[in-house]
Amino acid sequence: MQTIPVETLPHTTVPSIRVGDSVIGEEAIAGEMQFHPSTDREAAAKAAARALVIQELLRQRAEILGIETGSLHEPDERAIAVMLDQELQVPPPDEEACVRFHAAHPERFCEPTRLKVRHILLAAAPDDLDARDEQFKKAEGLIDTLKQHPKRFDEMAQRFSQCPSKDEGGSLGWVSRGQTVSELDRALEPLPEGLHERPLPSRYGWHVVVIDARLERQPLPYAEVKDRVAHELTEQATRVALRHYLLALESEIGVEGFTLADDDVDGPLMR
């Protein structure tokens, strides 16, 4: 993601904002924008203003309660988290609500797709373009050979692979998302069984891949995921409670030049 260097920022169109007796000026907003990656200056300015308004509302509420939370520019996140734990009363979801939520959203509580994978790694550093080009061509040649002689995979893995799995015929066993590097994760997940006809890239080089078997993702029974269901419902309820809490603070303390009412306040409160 692209960040916006402070020194290159033009003036924002977000005016000075008043929160209670405190003023959040354009300079503060411009300084905060670097922590809100965006290719859109206006979106970054709005996100920065939103974060500063929320932080100042919470700081002033903590001051009323006699809690020390630092300054606008150096907030004490731990103190604010303690205050929110005290202020937000979110009851745990009951069993009936959890069962209904699980039944309505089975796709959220699934066993991941699992693949039985063999591969041959032809190593090349990401910044070594000559080596990557050479290894890509070598991988294509191996694939052409394996199309004609699939039983030679173990032999070729032993001869050419630069992964320790070569001693196991290139076998990675059963893998699911998160068990390989992210770029290979994404490439592997949709593949059908059999030899893939193109080399797959990763930060380590090129992979000649065979999918020996697929186990598609399957919904898990409620009993196995009840804690996850309760956690997700609690998070949802906490976000709703936080939104109402912040809107109440906005009304009570007073905010001029910005409003949270039309905004999404589910994002991080702190940088």
From TrEMBL:
It catalyses: [protein]-peptidylproline (omega=180) = [protein]-peptidylproline (omega=0). Gene3D superfamilies: 3.10.50.40. Pfam families: Rotamase. It is an enzyme of class 5 (isomerase). It comes from the Bacteria. Keywords: Isomerase, Rotamase. InterPro entries: PPIase_dom_sf (IPR046357), PPIase_PpiC (IPR000297), PrsA_foldase (IPR050245). One of its GO terms (molecular function) is isomerase activity. PROSITE patterns: PPIC_PPIASE_2 (PS50198). Its EC number is 5.2.1.8. Residues 112-213 form the PpiC domain. Belongs to the PpiC/parvulin rotamase family. This is peptidylprolyl isomerase. The lineage of its organism: Bacteria, Pseudomonadati, Pseudomonadota, Gammaproteobacteria, Oceanospirillales.
